[in-house]
């Protein structure tokens, strides 16, 4: 059993990582962080640094509790959604954790295509979390 | 802390209820089942009976483990999504559990409006589960 989360260096991605780690600790499930590494557009160096820092902190905490974890670098040329779903199936994951953007009071936000795809196509449950502010 | 789930007498609703109960047991969180009770369209007596049977079984199991639970009958005239979100906020829920329909191999399914609303508007995490077959 495992908890699967994407390597997504944004505020929402960080919230998802944090929650995924909490769930891994609670269940003593392995945490798998999937880096589909497409870089390019939307890349934000500051967020990437924050994500890395959070990841290091989490890895230390999981080590401290004897909970297995790994970062998988995938270069399969897939959409991130496909990678997450495929790994979740291979590992019979407890669930996939994804981050969602918060809707603004006036904004009519629709779900991003990756999020929607994971929600609809993953056979395991999907835990959707928001950033805390 | 609590796990919040809708009273939704469908195959997906039953899967959500089951998973919500598992999570409540794991965390020793209270399980709150929200019945917005709009009846009418889509009402399926067989599914309602199955849901009731599952709920009774689950209530027994939660009692056996000393985990608190309740069914709240809400007649606020709200959409079910609003009721779930409101209760989740009042109770500072761990998360809301919702059921999603499985996409058919050919079908281009989009998320139902209630599901989409809960995913976008709930401030707590949302766990989306599918029926097992």
UniProtKB/TrEMBL annotation, chains A, B:
Pfam families: Usp. Residues 3-130 form the UspA domain. Belongs to the universal stress protein A family. PANTHER family: STRESS RESPONSE PROTEIN NHAX (PTHR46268), UNIVERSAL STRESS PROTEIN UP12 (PTHR46268:SF6). This is Universal stress protein.
């Amino acid at each position: 059993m495992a908890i699967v989360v994407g390597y997504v260096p944004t505020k929402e991605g960080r919230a998802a990582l944090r929650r995924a780690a909490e769930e891994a600790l609670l269940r003593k499930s392995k945490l798998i962080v999937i880096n589909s590494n497409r870089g390019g557009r939307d890349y934000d160096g500051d967020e990437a640094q924050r994500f890395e820092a959070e990841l290091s902190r989490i890895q230390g905490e999981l080590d401290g509790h004897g909970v297995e974890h790994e970062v998988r670098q995938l270069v399969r040329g897939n959409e991130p959604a496909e990678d997450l779903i495929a790994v979740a199936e291979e590992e019979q994951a407890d669930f996939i954790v994804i981050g969602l953007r918060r809707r603004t009071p006036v904004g009519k936000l629709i779900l991003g295509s990756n999020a929607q795809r994971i929600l609809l196509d993953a056979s395991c449950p999907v835990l959707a979390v928001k950033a805390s502010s």
